[in-house]
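Example S7 (structure tokens).
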């Protein structure tokens, strides 16, 4: 990971494994569908389907601020939560 400008901002699989039960960490999988998530996911992780949870299809853009705040809240992500 040393090739990245800010490697301290990347989470390794080891780091994620060490923080699975940390209530201030939320792992989020974003994909085109939930098939991969449903076949096996990291305990405590949440699944966002791009076209259902992230994309505002009427304008083909990411969610507006209020909608994104609602989505984050429903996933258990607050201002003091680190999301990966």
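Recovered sequence:
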């Amino acid at each position: 990971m040393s090739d990245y400008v800010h490697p301290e901002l990347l989470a390794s699989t080891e780091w994620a494994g060490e923080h699975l039960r940390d209530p201030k960490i939320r792992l989020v999988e974003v994909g085109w569908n939930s098939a991969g998530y449903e076949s096996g996911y990291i305990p405590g992780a949440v699944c966002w389907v791009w076209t259902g949870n992230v994309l505002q299809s009427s304008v083909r853009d990411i969610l507006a601020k209020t909608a994104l705040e609602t989505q984050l809240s429903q996933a258990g992500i607050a201002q003091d939560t680190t999301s990966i």
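Notes on this example. The mean pLDDT is 84.
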